[in-house]
Write a structure and sequence with these properties.
mainly alpha; 940 residues; Serine Threonine Protein Phosphatase 5, Tetratricopeptide repeat
Length: 940
């Protein structure tokens, strides 16, 4: 019995050789279909590995590789076997197959140091980035062998980590054995290349000299080193020019780092400026570095030095802007006038950034230069309108607010120009203030009005004028406080309410602004309505991030209020109906409503997508039959799992459900619970095995890009899952300590009988039928042509002139019940034997003739596969005396295993003989039983 098992195992193992780049899958197939006895498999693997060693000693490298693949497939966890296979694959030029074999060896035996080292050396030889990372990981876990330190040092050198490589090379040098001399020489060359690329020529030269002493040929590297030194000596410029260029380069690099918020090292910059003290950009870089370090005096000194030297306009503008910002932030007191002058000069030298323009605008207002500030704000707004400057909505509102503040203050003294209140009246503080404002002396005008507000009971008009001047000078807080005092004296003044609300809105106090603007709207101020709507909109958006969805009624109400305002403006001919503020506000409301519509549509689409995904996940996917048809290579593994399910889940477990019903009839509730728990509970039960096997099938499907829905789409597994689901409730009821009533017992028994019908009838028949369907294989031109192409591509046929395959078939529906790999192996070996026997002919001609034959004795129908050639005849004894692990001996063993036979027949010219394989013919009608089983399950 054991010898028959070994022969069968050898036959199935050779099948794996036809797919050398899929050895893990082949090993799984062999272990599943060969033998159940692990000791027999081990003995067979040792025998085949010994034969591979003899073939390798006889320099038959291809035969050794082929044979060792069989041994490795039989022992998938034997890392040493896979390591030996990888070495042979690499020697035969199959680098990809060697890499896969090493990966399997390390996965099966992680502590195998020899495999780790060999695989690491293979990856280092390719010198690719990911390969070096993988090699470093392998070496870090490869133990303390002497070669590890040398290889790790080489990996570090190839990565560019020269210092780490030198440190690791010390450990390699301590193992000065003869066997490591070549490794140390290669390491020295890699270290020298690393230092050479970093420009460290002296260190690289010393390492190359040590490499030469170790036996390496470093002539080419030394020549490259000499040429690099010669070029460096020729390209040296005059000292002063070189020093200035170096200083400029270092300064530019430092400025780039400062722009990114990084602090550059000042040692190199200071040293370069000592060699070239007249470099303006260098002093500017030192100034910005000092400002970054909060050293104000040193920053001011260096900026002043830079500005006294020749500079480009852009560099001068940057230096002036930096000095101006320094003065504005000077501690303990701001040097406002100097900072404003520097920023204005920077703006005149070159166009400033938007941030610096806003700082200059605020500085001009604070120093009372309102005409220059007004000119600057109009220029910025003009650039934003032309599209040459991009402004955010907040920046646009701020600039418009500053423009209105400046224009409002300038409008106060324009009234004086018309002679309404002559500025010559010395006793009137308002007149004196306007006279000073006409000469752009707003600070003095504010002082006059402040003194008047303290000495006397100030009027509301005086406080209002003072607030305008304060706001024009950038004192927004003081202007708002002053206007509130003015409003206390005249609370029913709609214009004051509107003005205060607008200033509060510009300052970001939305809630307070809303109250005053709403009050102004109630007092009849027409221009207050848009601001009130704007305030309500901002407040709405501030309170709810999803206002476009949750507050749609409020948004429609705001749009109605704005439409009412436009109607009033048109009736009054005030010109406010199409003002930019009203247009922008309408666009903002419409934008929020449109965003809400888009969000609602997105939510509906998302809900529909989630629902469709859930339905697809529940009812979509495919079944096992579709998987095997689309990917025939999965047939052997799927068949093995199905056979295990039928054997372990159904035959040996679910048949015990009848005992559960019998125990319930006899009133033995504890015995029924024990038996049912062994079937459908957690742990090592039939239900858990079913889940494990289903998981294996789903992983096979995912590896081929298919999602298996076994629970609902596959007839066999859907019946299995439905049956086990029915067992859950009886198991819960039986686990309760209370005795069952007659009615409860009857219900449980009915549920158990239904589960028995699903599991032991429907599921068992469906699995059996599916196995029958999967064993069917069509024998046609495509299969034979693929086998012929595989043989013709082998190295042994490379020097032969082989004609096209002569294919003849009498029947288009010739099927056999045989795995694809086994049948392919039969055809491949027959064609290989025919071509080898005809090697002396030019060209070599072979053919495959298919037919059917009915036995006159048994009346059974057979599929006949004849491989014809023009080679000399063979005797039947020559076939049966061949070994069973290759050629015609293997074909004979495979055909005999599947109920067939092999014979030699003479052929008519031009052919001389035919080797005929006779296999029982199968008919593709099993799908009818499968569909019937599926229909029974649906009606159950």
């Amino acid at each position: 019995m054991l010898s028959f098992t070994l022969i069968w195992a050898a036959s199935a193992a050779v099948t794996a050789v036809t797919a050398p780049l899929a050895l893990p899958d082949a090993a799984t197939s062999v272990c599943a279909a060969v033998v159940d006895d692990s000791e027999a498999a081990r003995l067979l693997a040792l025998t085949i590995a010994g034969k591979a060693k003899k073939l390798r000693d006889n320099r038959d490298l291809l035969g050794a590789v082929t044979t060792l693949r069989i041994a490795a497939a039989l022992q998938p966890r034997d890392g040493a076997l896979w390591h030996d296979l990888a070495v042979l694959e690499l020697q035969s030029g199959q680098a990809f197959a060697a890499e896969q074999a090493w990966q399997v060896a390390i996965a099966g035996q992680p502590d195998l140091s020899s495999a780790r080292l060999a695989y690491a050396e293979f990856l280092i030889a390719r010198s690719l980035g990911p390969d070096l990372d993988r090699a470093g990981e392998l070496l870090s876990r490869a133990g303390r062998e002497p070669t590890v330190a040398c290889l790790a040092a080489k990996v570090a050198a190839l990565r560019g980590a020269c210092d780490d490589s030198d440190r690791l090379a010390e450990g390699c040098a301590k193992t000065a054995r003869k066997s490591l001399r070549a490794v140390q020489a290669e390491l020295a060359l890699a270290r020298a290349r690393c230092r050479f690329e970093r420009g460290e020529y002296d260190v690289a030269e010393k390492i190359l000299e040590s490499a030469q002493s170790a036996g390496a040929d470093a002539t080419k590297q030394l020549a490259e080193l000499s040429e690099a030194r010669r070029k460096a000596a020729v390209e040296i410029a005059p000292a002063s020019r070189q020093a200035a260029a170096t200083a400029v380069e270092i300064a530019r690099r430092a400025l780039d780092q400062l722009d990114k918020g990084q602090e550059p090292p000042d040692v190199s910059l200071v040293s370069a400026m000592q060699q070239a003290p007249l470099t303006a950009i260098g002093h500017a870089a030192l100034a910005e570095l000092a400002a970054f370090q909060k050293d104000q005096p040193r920053a001011e000194t260096n900026w002043l030095r830079a500005l006294n030297l020749p500079m480009a306009d852009a560099d001068r503008s940057r230096a002036l802007a930096g000095l101006g910002q320094l003065y504005l932030k000077w501690s303990p007191a701001s040097r406002l006038a100097e900072g404003t002058h520097c920023l204005a000069a920077a703006h005149a030298a070159a166009d400033l950034s938007l941030t610096l323009k806003l700082e200059l605008l605020l500085a001009l207002r604070k120093t009372g230069q309102l005409q220059a500030a007004h000119k600057l704000v109009l220029a910025v707004l003009r650039q934003a309108g032309d599209g040459t400057l991009e402004l955010s909505a907040a920046q646009q509102r701020e600039l418009h607010a500053q423009r209105l503040a400046i224009e409002g203050a300038r409008g106060e003294f324009k009234v004086a120009d018309q002679g309404v209140e002559p500025p010559t009246v010395a006793s009137d503080p308002r007149s004196r203030a306007r006279s000073l404002a006409q000469r752009d002396r707003y600070a003095e005008a504010i002082a006059v009005l402040l003194q008047a507000s303290r000495d006397h009971d100030a009027s509301s008009d005086l406080l209002r004028e003072l607030a305008r001047y304060q706001r024009a000078m950038g004192d927004n807080g003081g202007a708002i406080d002053t206007l509130r005092k003015s409003l206390e004296k005249r609370s029913d003044d709609g214009e004051l309410q509107w003005l205060l609300g607008r200033w509060l809105l510009d300052s970001g106090h939305i809630a307070a602004a809303h109250r005053h603007i709403r009050r102004a709207e109630e007092l009849g101020v027409l221009s207050a309505a848009p601001l009130a709507v704007r305030a309500d909109l901002d407040l709405l958006l501030e309170e709810s991030a999803l206002a476009s969805i949750t507050e749609r009624h409020a948004l429609h109400a705001l749009r109605s209020r704005l439409d009412h305002h436009v109607a009033r403006a048109v009736a009054d001919h005030s010109g406010l109906a199409e003002s930019p503020e009203v247009v922008a506000l309408r666009h903002a409301i419409e934008r929020e409503l449109a965003a809400g519509d888009r969000l609602w549509m997105l939510l509906i689409a998302l809900l529909a997508t989630v629902t469709a995904s859930a339905l697809w996940w529940r009812h979509g996917g495919t079944d096992l039959r579709t998987l095997v048809i689309a990917h025939p290579d999965t047939g052997a593994e799927v068949q093995h799992i199905l056979a295990a399910v039928r054997h372990e889940v159904l035959k040996h477990n679910t048949l015990q459900l009848a005992h559960v019903v019998a125990h319930l009839d006899a009133g033995r509730q504890d015995a029924a619970r024990t038996v049912l728990a062994s079937i459908g509970s957690e742990g090592d039960t039939a239900h858990q095995r079913l889940l494990d096997y289903a998981g294996q099938l789903q992983r096979i499907g995912r590896a081929r890009g298919l999602r298996l829905n076994l629970r609902r789409r596959d007839p066999a597994f859907s019946a299995l899952f439905a049956g086990f689901d029915l067992l859950a409730q009886p198991l819960r009821r039986l686990r309760q300590d209370r005795p069952l009533s007659t009615r409860s017992r009857a219900q449980l028994q009915a549920r158990l009988r239904k589960a028995m019908r699903l599991l032991n009838a429907n599921a068992y028949n469906a699995i059996t039928t599916l196995l029958d369907v999967m064993r069917l294989l069509r024998l046609d031109r495509e299969l034979c042509q693929a086998a012929f192409d595989q043989v013709r591509a082998e190295p042994a046929c490379g020097q032969l002139t082989i004609a096209q395959l002569d294919f003849v078939s009498d029947d288009a529906e010739l099927c056999v019940a045989m795995p694809r790999q086994a049948l392919t192996e039969v055809v491949v070996n027959l064609l290989r034997n025919a071509i080898a026997a005809s090697a002396g002919l030019t060209p070599v001609r072979v053919g495959v003739h298919l037919s059917s034959e009915v036995s006159a004795v048994t009346a059974l129908e057979y599929t006949m596969l004849a491989v014809v050639d023009m080679a000399p005849d063979l005797e039947p004894e020559q076939i049966h005396n061949q070994p069973a692990d290759r050629g015609l001996g293997l074909v004979c063993a495979l055909v005999g295993h599947y109920g067939g036979g092999l014979d030699i027949r003479h052929q008519r010219s031009p052919w001389t003989k035919a080797i005929v394989v006779r296999l029982p013919r199968a008919f593709p009608t099993a799908h009818i039983a499968l569909e019937a089983s599926n229909a029974i399950h649906k009606t159950a």
